[in-house]
Amino acid sequence: VAGLGNYGLRGTRHSVGMEVLDQLARQLAVAEGWRVDKRCCADVALATAHGLELVLLKPRRFMNLNGLSVASAAEIYSLGPQDIYLVHDDLDKALGKVAIKLGGSARGHNGVQSCISALQSNEMTRLRIGIGRP
């Protein structure tokens, strides 16, 4: 589960994916387990939920390079694109609205496009968090 955003610009609406991962880590009682993994240039926490092993990932890069971290982590943890969930902002959705999308285009989102390019696939599931237009 990769929370897309601009590392170092926490609290901005475009980094909502990382905020969602922080909340998920708290709910899964692994919030203290975040560690820097230099191999994929990301903060990583491992968790278990409903019998599934999860890798929570917050890339330590700007949005348009998030895919490099996601692809590196996929290789490290032997994950295919179909195993990856991207959590990201969506300008076209009203603030707070949430939608799940399976595959397809990036719809203009630079972080998703970076992941599609780095993984050479568009099969990732996306959790789109509405941030609305300014």
UniProtKB/TrEMBL annotation:
Gene3D superfamilies to which the protein is assigned, alphabetical: Peptidyl-tRNA hydrolase
Signal peptide limits: none
SUPFAM superfamilies referenced in this protein's UniProt entry, alphabetically: Peptidyl-tRNA hydrolase-like
Keywords: Hydrolase, RNA-binding, tRNA-binding
GO molecular function annotations of the record: peptidyl-tRNA hydrolase activity; tRNA binding
Name by which UniProt lists this protein: PTH hydrolase
